[in-house]
Amino acid sequence: MNFVVKPERELLGHVVASAIRDEILTGGVQHGEQLRLAPLAEKLNLSITPVREALLLLAQDGWVVHAPNRGFRVAPIRRNDVQDTYFMWATAEGELAARAAARVTPDGIDVLREVDRALHQLEDHRSALALTLNAKLHSAVHAMADAPKLLWFADSARRLVPLQFDSAFHGVPGWEQVNRLGHTTIIDRIELGDAEGARSSMRDHILATCSLLLAWLDSLAFWQE
């Protein structure tokens, strides 16, 4: 069996998709606006092919709507849709935490405690390091859970959140406190092997970030419904 791998092309499509998504989030393009291939390709200094691939990726995640023979339009981002996305994400992350509690190891807890201490001690939670530590802690929970299909669902939901955690969520008012103090209870429950407690704590943690994001987007009059 032979597989044809085109890593550079695949990577380019994802990079272009990220750039277009950022334009949607920052208001560079408006909800309902048509995205034309040729002007986008010219703006990005690329051929039409990777731009089309990027738009198809965004269509899969619900950022744009693709109509055959009519091109692509920016999809509306509705408040209820964000809440539903967070509900699915929180549910998956809660189950991952429960699985981690069922498979807890001393080494795994050591990693979580070390990162949590770093978050407590970090002065600037609006920094790239704050995001890196956050990602490291959640990745450690995921590794302990050893549930790749659940993780796929969690990652799929995370990609639909209208602000990417790995690049921008530190700008949401109130996130600093959640990031500094919001993981300790989760780790306590995992260490005790308390699956239900870990599930509930992680779910509440994710939903807390939902409340922060919605409040911020409300203040920006972000919704066009």
From TrEMBL:
All residue ranges annotated as the HTH gntR-type domain in the record: 10-77
Listed InterPro entries: GntR_C, TF_FadR/GntR_C, Tscrpt_reg_HTH_GntR, WH-like_DNA-bd_sf, WH_DNA-bd_sf
PROSITE patterns: HTH_GNTR (PS50949)
Listed GO MF terms: DNA binding; DNA-binding transcription factor activity
Domain of life: Bacteria
UniProt keyword annotation of Zinc present: no
Keywords for this protein: DNA-binding, Transcription, Transcription regulation
Name of the protein this chain belongs to: GntR family transcriptional regulator
Source organism of the structure: Cryobacterium lyxosi
Upper taxonomic lineage: Bacteria, Bacillati, Actinomycetota, Actinomycetes, Micrococcales
